[in-house]
Amino acid sequence: MVDEPLELGEDKSPGVPKNRLNTGLTFDTLVEGSANRMARAAAMHVAGMPGHLYNPLFIYGGVGLGKTHLMHAVGNKLLLDRPASKVLYIHAEQFVSDVVKAYQRKTFDEFKDKYHSLDLLLIDDVQFFANKERTQEEFFNAFEALLAKKSHIVMTSDTYPKGLADIHERLVSRFDSGLTVAIEPPELEMRVAILINKAQVEGADMPEEVAFFVAKNVRSNVRELEGALRKILAYSRFNQKEISIQLAREALRDLLSIQNRQISVENIQKTVADYYKIKIADMYSKKRPASIARPRQIAMYLAKELTQKSLPEIGELFGGRDHTTVLHAVRKIGGERQQMTELNQQLHVLEQTLKG
Known about the structure:
Low-confidence stretches: 1-14
Mean pLDDT: 87
Strand order of the largest sheet: 2-3-4-1-5
Radius of gyration: 25 Å
Structural class: alpha/beta
Strand content: 5-15%
Oligomer: single chain
Helix content: 55-70%
C-alpha cells in the first residue's frame, strides 16, 4: 500500500526541456541585495564547483522571495560551463509522483537510473515530503547515491531543516549536513532595484520615485512586486499615459485601499526606519542618539495619528516604554510640525506612503 497521493503525471507541455530549467532565470537576472547575498554567493560557488563545498545546499525562506530563481540559476550556469552535465530541476511533488509511478508500474530500476545518475539535482519545496514514508526512503537513497559520486544537491524549503515537520530525522540530518542559508524579504532599496530592472525587461521606463512609492507599499515578496508592476504597465498602456506616482496609485487602488485600512504600528516603524535609514530594531532599543531617538519619536507620533492604539499600547510596541514617553513624543513632534517646514514635508511623505 502506498501512502502517497495519486500520480501527478509528467509535464508534457511543449517547450519544457528535459532538465525542466527555465533559461530566463539566471544569476544575471537576479537582483542582489543583503536579503539574498549569502544564498546567492553560495549558489554561485556550487555552480562553479559542483560536488565540493556546500553539498547539499539548503535554501529556505518564505513564498516569492527568489529561492526557485536561485536554483534555476545554478543549473543554467553549470550547463553553460559544462554542457554535458546531467541536471534536473523538479518540484518535490513531482518526485512524489515519480515514486508513486515507479511503485505502481514496478519500475524502480528506471527511477534509480533517472535520479542516481545526475550531476546536479535541484529540488524545490522539500517540505512536501512530510508524512510520505516511501518518498522519504527513496529520496534518502537518491541523496546517498548522489553524494557518493560527488554529485551536487540543492534544495529549497519554507523553513530551516530542523523546522521541517513529519520528515524522518535521518533525512533532516542529511539536509543539515552541508550549508543552510536563508533568503529574507527584500529590503527597500532591493525592492526599488527589482521594480526598475523588471520594468526595463518589459521595455518600460519606471521613474525612481514611482518605484520607491510602489516598493514602500508592496513589501512582502518579489512575486507581489511583479504583480504590482504588471498592473501598472497594463494600466499605462491601456490609458496611453506615462508612468507616474498618480498612475501607479490609480492602477493599484484596490491594493492600496486594503492597506489603508490596515495601517499598523509595525508598518509605521518599518516605513520610518526605511525612510531615515536606521534599523527597525532601533525602534525598540534603549539607544538615545538623536539619529535614532528622533525617528523613533516620529514613529510614535504617526502611530498615535494613524492607528487606534492607546498611548500605553504604543509604548508597549516600542520596547515597553511608558505611555508618558509616547505622550512627550506626540506633543513634541506635533508642535515642531507647525513650525518646521522640512519636518512637515517629511511627515507628509511618510503619511502619504503609509496611506497609499
